[in-house]
Amino acid sequence: MAITVKDVAKKAGVATSTVSRVINDHPSISEATKKKVQKVMDELGYVPNITARNLGKRISSAIGVILPPLDSKERIGNPFYLEIMEAINEEARRYDLTTAIATAKNFDTLLENVQRMHLQKQVDGFILVYSDSEDPVIDYLYTNEIPFTLIGQPYRHENEIIYVDNDNQLLGKQATDFLIQNGHESILFVTNTTHESLYFERYFGYQKALMLAGLTVHPSVVIEQPEDYLAFDAILKKSQATALVVIDDIFALRTMQLAQMYGYRIPDTLSIISFNNSIFATLTHPYLTSIDIDISELGRVAMQKLYELIHDEISSGVRLVIPHQLVKRETVVPRL
Fold first, then answer.
1. How far does the signal peptide extend, from start to end residue (predicted)?
2. Which of 210, 284, 200 has the alpha carbon at shortest distance from 249?
C-alpha cells in the first residue's frame, strides 16, 4: 500500500498542509519542523509525487533540449548530439529535472514543436545545442523572454544571452598552426555547412593563422551538393594542397574517403585535422588527429546555467568558454 501525505502528517503530528509545505521547501516552515517531517518521510519510505508538487509550484520540472534540423545523414549520425544530450541529462538529474527533446527535419516544424512545448508548459526552459544564422527558434525564445541557454555563439543579442562555447576561432587557428608547424603551406578549410556559428569562427581562425604566417588564404571548400564532390579533386589539384582543416570528425571521415577515391594517401600525400574528438576519430584507420572540445562540459555548464537562470540566481548576458585540447594521432605528418 502506497504511503500518502496523510500518513506522514498523522505520524508526525502535523497538518497535511504542513507536510506539503515541507515538500515544497516553503520558507514559512521552521527548520525543526522540516527535520521532523523529513525524518518521518524517511522512516515511512514516502516519496513525494513530483507531478503533484510541481502543480503547486506551477512548474514542470523538465527542460527542453533543442537539436538543429536533422536534415542529413551526417547530422543524424553525429555523435556530438548524443554526447551533449547525455551530459545535459546527467546534470539535470542533479536538480531532479527531466529532459525533453525538440527536433525536426526543418526549422519551421522545429519552431512549432518548441512553441507547443512552451505554451503547454511542458518545460521550464530550453537549451539550444546549436547556433545557426537561419534559426527562428532563438528569436522566439528571446522575444518571449523564455529562459534558455545556448551552446554556441549567438548572432545577435550577445550581451543579453547566456551562452556556453569553445573559443572556436582559436580552435581554427590552432588546428591550422599545427599543420603549418608540420611544414604545410597550402592548406584548405573543408566544410559541409556555411550558416552555423562554429563554421564562421573556425574559418576565421584558419584565415588568421595563414595570414600571420604569410601564407595564402583559400576560400572555404564547401561540400554539400553532388557537384561539390565531383569538383573536389580539381580544387585539390589547383591549390596543390597538402593538408586540410575539416569542420568536424564525422565530415572528416567523408572527406578522407573522397580524397582516397581520387588517389590521395592519408596522411602521406594529404594530412587532415578536424574537431570534436568524437568516437569516429578512432573507428577508422588512420586514426584522426582532432581537437577535443570537451562536449560533456559544454552540456553540463549549459544545464547548470539554465537552472540558475530559471531560479533567478543569474541574469542574462553571460559567456562561458570551455577549454579544448589537441589530440595528436595519425592523420597529420610533417611535409617532406
1. none
2. 284
Give the residue among 148, 149, 143, 145 at the shortest CA–CA distance from 163: 149
pLDDT in tens, 180-213: 999 999 999 999 999 899 999 999 999 999 999 9
Co-location of 21 and 82 in the same domain? no
In this structure, are 157 and 300 located in the same domain? Answer: yes
Are 129 and 87 in contact by the 8 Å Cβ rule? The answer is no
If asked whether residues 86 and 227 sit together in one domain, one would say no
Separation of alpha carbons 298 and 88, rounded Å: 9
- The full DSSP string for 37-55 is HHHHHHHHT----HHHHHH
Q: Is residue 335 part of a domain?
A: no
Residue numbers of the domain that contains 107 = 62-166+296-324
The Cα–Cα gap between 287 and 331 comes to 6
How do residues 99-153 score in pLDDT, each as one tens digit? 999 999 999 999 999 999 999 889 999 999 999 998 999 999 999 999 999 999 9
- The grid cell for 96 is 531532479
Q: How far apart are CA 111 and CA 66, in angstroms?
A: 10
Instruction: Give the pLDDT mean for 234-241.
Output: 97
**β-sheet with 325-327: strand ranges across:** 221-222, 187-191, 243-246, 271-275, 289-292, 325-327
Same domain, 119 and 261: no
User: E strands within 166-259?
Assistant: 187-191, 221-222, 243-246
Chain centre to alpha carbon of residue 324: 14
Cell of 48: 513525494
Q: What is the CATH number of the domain that holds 302?
A: 3.40.50.2300
Per the structure, how many domains does the chain have?
A: 3
